[in-house]
Amino acid sequence: MWKGRDVISIRDFKKEDIEHVLKTAERLERELKDEGALKYAGGKILATLFFEPSTRTRLSFESAMHRLGGSVIGFSEASSTSVKKGESLRDTIKTVEQYSDVIVIRHPEEGAARLAAEVADIPVINAGDGSNQHPTQTLLDLYTIKRTFGRIDGLKIGLLGDLKYGRTVHSLSEALTHYDVELYLISPELLRMPKHIVEELRDKGVKIYETSDLESVIPELDVLYATRIQKERFPDEQEYLKVKGSYVITLDLLKNAKESLKIMHPLPRVDEIHPSVDASKHAIYFRQVFSGVPVRMALLGLTLGVVE
Amino acid sequence: MSELKVTAIKEGTVIDHIPAGKGLKVIQILKLDKLNGGALLLAANVHSKKLGKKDIVKIEGRFLSEEEVNKIALIAPSATVNIVREYKVAEKFQVEIPSEIVGILRCANPNCVSNHEYTTPKFYVISKEPLKVRCHYCERTMEEKEILANL
């Protein structure tokens, strides 16, 4: 049952749930292309509560709701709301649910979306809670892979960059345990995937290779998922500069890649991928951005109960 | 000999089979050192068939509630609790680490919403040995050391 369901953590998703979202997104993408505007969510209101700024996530949720024929209310920073006056998250949610049919929330504290879902009677979708979860990003990542390759099973997927703190790669690798994939974890020593996550992945039967050498594994990969390395993670700037330089994806680096290699990135990027790569057949990160709309349409439609 | 040790109080609770060295922590966590009245006894490094060595805590005049027993289970999963009445063991049960820990443990993550908003902290036990729990809200895992510091 999807009607009324909350979308808080990728942990709450079974494989059949993921597959259902991906199928629904594909169907809605096709319908949108054929018919232009859809009317599934006519008369429904989405409230977007962004206690932290975001470009892509908020705009794609709003775009998704409009494309479904619904309307949107909300705020994009906490400073213009009662939160500034000291209102609790509980009270904000209890208030907003009187005005809307579904809530999308981004909040700097981990667990905020879970709490919001407990407080609200209407469905709540997590658009990022601190450094914890961002499940709709993971679903759109899976959707992008599936739409590009026609499958997820059997692929060799490289996760590159900050694997220690990056919530996107944690959630994505967690979701990929439902599929038969090989994971290449490529990061500087300092930013390796936490041991407990690697163990969890291995326990679930995922084949894992850990390395710090991007160049040597490039020829193996079907997908290279790059992430931003944040300067503030490094105790010393020299270390940062050394690492930063070794993970810039350039056309030269891609000479040994498979023809079919696809490069993904959750964006925003800083300089992990050289702009000259954008025009190559490998780049699908803007297509990935596009995927955000049909996937979020599917999630809004399913949780509202207006799409089967 | 060991029977005597368990039943030497008239009314109260005897916590047996505490892993050696954890007896003092049991006392601290249950705040037994702040008891008024009844005697509190700690036997440390007692020979045990099951554990090799064990600690025993005896609390006179007080019966432990289930919530308190859960707290013990987190640091001494092998412990048995004896409720003593009129020098006899009236009830005896093994403490068990519950699959969910509700209300007695705080999340170690300072940025967890449970440390900022009105909530009842809740954790899922993902491993009993070594002890590991996951926060219902922020999904961070805590290991034994952090758990003990946040009880």
Walk me through this protein's architecture:
The complex is a heterodimer of chains A (308) and B (151). By secondary structure, chain A is an alpha/beta fold. Chain A has two domains: 10-133 and 292-304, 3-Layer(aba) Sandwich (Rossmann fold), CATH 3.40.50; 135-289, Rossmann fold (3-Layer(aba) Sandwich). Chain A is 38% helix and 15% strand. Chain A has ten helices and nine strands. Chain A has helices at residues 15-35, 56-67, 89-96, 112-119, 135-149, 167-176, 195-203, 214-217, 237-246, 285-304; strands at 45-50, 71-75, 102-107, 124-129, 156-160, 182-186, 207-211, 223-226, 262-264. In chain A, the strands form two sheets. In chain A, strands 7-6-5-8-9 form a five-stranded parallel sheet. A four-stranded parallel sheet of chain A has the order 2-1-3-4. In chain A, helix 1 (15-35) crosses helix 5 and helix 2 packs across helix 10 (285-304). Chain A is globular. Chain B has 151 residues and is α+β, with helices and mostly antiparallel strands. Chain B folds into two domains: 12-94, Alpha-Beta Plaits (2-Layer Sandwich); 100-149, Roll (SH3 type barrels), CATH 2.30.30.20. In chain B, 19% of the residues lie in helices and 38% in strands. Chain B has four helices and nine strands, in the order αβαββαββββββα. Chain B has helices at 2-7, 23-29, 66-75, 144-149; strands at 12-19, 40-48, 52-60, 80-85, 88-94, 100-102, 122-128, 131-135, 141-143. In chain B, the strands form two sheets. Chain B has a five-stranded antiparallel sheet, with helices on one face. In chain B, a hairpin with a 2-residue loop joins strand 7 (122-128) and strand 8 (131-135). The radius of gyration of chain B is 16 Å and the shape is globular. The interface between A and B is medium-sized, with 19 and 16 residues.
